[in-house]
Amino acid sequence: MASTSSVPDAPISTEEAALKALTFQRLHPKAFLERFLAENARPDGREPAEWRDVSVNVGSISTADGSALVRLGDTTVVCGVKAEIAEPELDSPEDGFLVPNVDLPAICSPRFRPGPPSDEAQVLSDRLNEILVATEVVSTRSLCIESGKAVWVLYIDATCINYDGNAFDATLIAMVAALQNTRLPKATFDEDTGKVVCTRKEKTPLQIGRFPLSVSFGIFDGTHVLTDPTSFEEPLLDTTFTVVVDENGGVVSVVQLGLASQDVLQKCIATAKSRCIELGKQVYAAS
User: Fold this and answer.
1) Please, what is the angle between helix 119-135 and helix 167-181, to 10°?
2) What Gene3D superfamilies does its record include (predicted)?
3) Whole-model pTM?
């Protein structure tokens, strides 16, 4: 009688294991995240309440009047400020203009498509405009050159060059840091010619009134509160919070999408206050 011998299965290589994990992640993203959270971890190695590192580099765009490059984990946003001269509104003769704009190009993530600005980019631009106006980061009165004649318009253009979630938090830092880095040429209005004369030999910084920061949270499966969610986690969240806080810990705004208990919301706000005060010393002091 012929004897048979069992052949042990060949060990799975690291490449094969990584491919299986990636396939499982794409086919069953919710179950994939659940397995990590069961071990009190997240796919990028963080704990649920752990933040990603933030870095700020200012003045890197020589053609702009002010600029900043911000990295929030792998999310990278570059912002440039361009100043132009315009006539003020008739009912606001001493007020200049802030014009923020966010671009989420196709190159930054497969989720975005080429073409006109996406709905998400437009919503981000509107939300950032509300924060800049509400906090008076730069007073529009300080942008007046000659009442009723000429004011500065600051175009604050931010482009995400790599998207890995939480673009709002990264873009707000980039915009405020770029404004802090902005220097305007000395401008005077010539009554005789009716024109503004600028000299770039003498430049002055903007008068920055407040330094807002935002932090975002997500609730997964009704129980897990995740700070600073990534692009993989964002579509899986039941609820998201974004809390905007100024440099003194004062709450500027809270945006909630989805349902959550009042206790969870209060805890997120308390966490946001301490996080923003600590982060503000790091990012804006370096700007």
Assistant:
1) 50
2) GHMP Kinase, N-terminal domain (3.30.230.70)
3) 0.91
